[in-house]
Amino acid sequence: MSIAVAVLADDPITEEGAIVRLNSYDEISARSLDSCHADSAFDVLLVLANGVTGSMLTRVARVRRESGGGGRGVPVVLVANEFPEHSMLRAISLGLVNLLYRKESSFNAIARAVVSAARGCTKPGGDGVQQRLIGQIKAIRETALIPHGLNVAGLGAREVNVLRLLADGLSTKEVAGRIGCSERTIKSVIHQLVARHNLKNRTHAVAFALRTGVL
């Protein structure tokens, strides 16, 4: 059975070209992410980007969040020219298992990376050091953070919930009403996380959560 690959790219020309080229491999069946229905399953999400931006990762997060059975838990292969360090944790939390640098990659390398990701192996394709780093961070996340209700930013579930509501424009009073606690409690939550992470204020806290991929 062929490996179903959903392709997400910066522009339609790149996306269509990648789909045509990948479909020339017998073991791969590629199509546009936009053509995948919410209940359609795919084995790998391939992201092709010039640079990894917050908007691109937010789109990946939305896909994984909104896909009924298609995107959740699916490994992500990322091909990009630029990969800011602060994007690494967020990308890994979204399922990144293989990273290739666009200028140094061929479609043969991308195809190998996709097949490896579908089979649960991340060694082929991509830089070995980079792949080991991804594996180490994933292990820390799965064994040390998730079991304790934390994430890559070291924030608890309630802190994330508060920051998400603040990011939506709610006041501390409105957040308290939405969560069902006192405004003083919300202010305490904000004060503690701001102090713990050496942040300036609640706006800085929301930016920190966005930058690390928690929101």
UniProtKB/TrEMBL annotation:
Keywords linked to the UniProt accession: DNA-binding, Transcription, Transcription regulation
Keyword check for Repeat = no
Domain HTH luxR-type, chain residue ranges per copy: 148-213
**Which top-rank group of organisms is this from?**
Bacteria
What is the protein name stated in its UniProt record? LuxR family transcriptional regulator
